[in-house]
Each structure stands twice: as C-alpha cells, then as structure tokens.
Amino acid sequence: MSGRPVVVYLTGWCRSGTTLIGNLIGELPGAVHVGELRYLWRHGVLGDGTNDVCGCGTRVADCPLWSVVLRRLGAPDVVPDLLDRQRRLLRTRHVAARLAESSATAAARRDLERLYEAIVAESGARIVVDSGKFPAEAATLCGSGRVRPYVLHVLRDPRAIAESWRRPKAYIPAMPAWRSTAYWVAFQQASARVGRAFPDRYRRLRYEDFAAAPADTLGAVLADWGLADAAPVGADGTAVLSPNHTVTGNPDRLRTGPVTIRPDERWRATAPRATRYVAASIAAPWLHRYGYRLRGTA
Fold it and tell me: What string of H, E and C letters represents the secondary structure of 212-250?
C-alpha cells in the first residue's frame, strides 16, 4: 500500500446499509469510519443540522479527534467558504462537471484532500471510511493524487428503502415514497457514472447480497482493493462494533457491541401497497438492471 492516505468512499442512497458497512470497514486495523463527513461543518461546527453528536458519544466540537482536526483546518473561520463550495460544486447534479477537470474541481478536491489528510494526521489511521454518499464527492476524489480513493456503491431495493423512510428514525424525519425513490434513481445513476469513469476504483454491492453473505461479499471487495485479506465479520454474520467517530449518519451508527447481520425482508409484509406501487413505478426502468424483480423476490 502506498504512503498516500486511503479513502473508501461509500456512495448510493440513504437506508441502503452504508452505516453498517462503514462501521465494519472501520473495524479494520488502521481504519477510521467518519460517517457522513460532508456534514462535519454544518453539524459539528455551526450546529445547524439534525444532530451534533459524534459516534464516540460526545459533541463533535468536543470530541478528542474532531476538536483537533477542526483547529488544524482553521474552523470556524473557513467554514463559510467550504460550505459555499459544497453547495456550488458537490451536489449530485454536479457529477458530470466534477468528472471533467476544471479549476473548480481542483478547488473542491483540495478541500476534501486537506480534510482527509488532517484526519489521518490526528487519528493515526491509514484508511478513512467516508459514508457521505454524494457521487459528486466520489467523482472529485477519483482524480486526486494526494489520497488513494476507492468508491463502494451500495444499493438496496428501492421499495425496502421507501418503507424504511415511511417512519421517522430518532433525529431523521420521515420521507414520502415518491421523494425517496426519486433520490434513489438519481443517486444510482450518478454513482454508476462514476463507476464507468473509474472502473478500477469502483465496486458495486447490493445490500441484499451483503446481508446474505457479509464475510464473503465485503471481504471480496476489500481483498480486490488490497485493503484486507478478509472482512471483520465472522462466517456466521456476527461482528463486534467498537465506538467510532462518525460525525453524523443513520442513528444506528451509535450502536456498539455484538451484531448479527442477516437478510431483512420485513418490508415485503409491512410496506403498504401504495408505498410499494409508487416506489416500483418510479424505479421500474432500473429494477431489472440491478437484479430486482418487479414482482416476487430479488
């Protein structure tokens, strides 16, 4: 492995299992899972977001890791400019532009590189796992010469995701099925575009396949990239999660201790017919592409 920091960037849409997968990769020796790093500035510095608690249980601003990282990068003074560049350059609609080299791309890339380098310097980690899920950030990173990026595109049946979004979860409000599925389509398309541009740095993993055989599926990705010989999960799907330094993400990021990973098909029984119909109708052109059936099991 080269001396450059390694960044494993998880992309896709929310409620696809990226938090759990990020936490698992974060259990590798020399790895740190930082959650949805994009929101460090809003949540951790400005307090303008759904929560400001680090995965270690303290406020992000008081966390032993993030407090020194933020000082190193000049927060809070630099935050307005960083957030402005995020808004203008790193939204999902900007993927095509970020895949094309430009002065704007270089500026956005430097922001990300400096942040990852500060995390490595202060944490002692050599692998940073970012479950930010924004394909434009993944596209920007793939052109970096200062970090060694890998993009893991995680997806799940959009009907299962719509059912998950039907109810609020801790600090995350509910979302209607049409909106969740529209985001699902946009994020899959954008993530796949990154994969076509950088096939050697990109892998796609369906949550259903991961949940059925976590050690084999995740282990194959990690081994393929030369990051680990095996995934930190047993052949029976059991793993032990340690406290982490995720700045935000699914509330499940705060769960520690033993976990058992297994397929979750409860949505087939609990999702109202309208939820399944709306999600399937919007996502229909992409269901077959990703191995999902319009009717029946995946």
Answer: HCHHHHHHHHHHHCCCCCCCCCCCCCEEEECCCCCCCCC
